[in-house]
Amino acid sequence: MIARVRTAVLISGRGSNMSALIEAARAPSFPAQIVLVLSDEPAAAGLPTARKAGVAAEAIDYRAYPGKEAFETALDARLLAASAEIVCLAGFMRALSPPFVERWEGRMLNIHPSLLPNLRGLHTHRRALAQRLAEHGCTVHLVTAELDAGPIIAQARVRVLEGDDADALAARVLKEEHRIYPEALNAVARSLRAANAPET
Ligand code: GRF
């Protein structure tokens, strides 16, 4: 059997995308396995959810470190100890520094609730409504040093409906997030596995 790519998920909160990844990775044919969930926020609801699903989940509390560099060193050490090969950011609310991002280049994914390059940054649903966009959606992309700007792996479009408020729109986008994030991880894990396969 070909080894599945060891994948860690970084969260800060609810973790519904994390759950979608864990669920998808239950299929033996899925090319990635979720080996670890880490949160910078000890109170993240996603931590107990992950444990209930049988996945190791730990907090690395940002406040316990003197600064970003020390925090990221601890994060990296934990990821390496778990032999993680791919990192999925899933509602991870802390911008990572360029050295950290470079260490994971091509192997770190993020999900963003807009059709990038439109609406980088926060409050995307509210901004989509304020700008009266006809279409909104979500994007999975590779993480680069510039926020929400890395190469796009998958996108899903959602029509903005008459009478939508930010919550209604967010809920429809979230449904698509849960569909495309596993698809994107599938694609990245497959290509990583192919790149690392011994030549025959
Ligand atoms: C999602 O909307 C994701 O696109 C954004 O943060 C939210 C996280 O939600 N980056 P959840 O924690 O996965 O439920």
What does this structure look like?
The chain is an alpha/beta fold and 200 residues long. It has a single domain (5-196), classed as 3-Layer(aba) Sandwich (Rossmann fold). 37% of the residues lie in helices and 22% in strands. It contains 6 helices and 7 strands; from the N terminus they run βαβαβαβαβαββα. The protein has helices spanning 16-24, 46-52, 68-81, 98-103, 124-130, 166-196; strands at 5-11, 32-39, 57-59, 86-89, 108-112, 135-142, 152-159. It has a 7-stranded mixed sheet, covered by helices on one side. It is globular, with a radius of gyration of 17 Å. It starts with a strand and ends with a helix. The mean pLDDT is 96. Bound molecules: 5-O-phosphono-beta-D-ribofuranosylamine. Residues 11, 13-18, 90-91, 111-113, 138, 174, 177 line the site of 5-O-phosphono-beta-D-ribofuranosylamine (GRF).
CATH architectural grouping = 3-Layer(aba) Sandwich
* CATH fold-level name: Rossmann fold
Strand order of the largest sheet: 3-2-1-4-5-6-7
Please give the CATH class.
Answer: Alpha Beta
In this entry the ligands are: 5-O-phosphono-beta-D-ribofuranosylamine
Mean pLDDT: 96
Q: Output the structural class.
A: alpha/beta
CA distance, first residue to last residue: 16 Å
Radius of gyration: 17 Å
Low-confidence runs of at least 5 consecutive residues: none
**What overall geometry do the principal axes of the alpha carbons give?**
globular
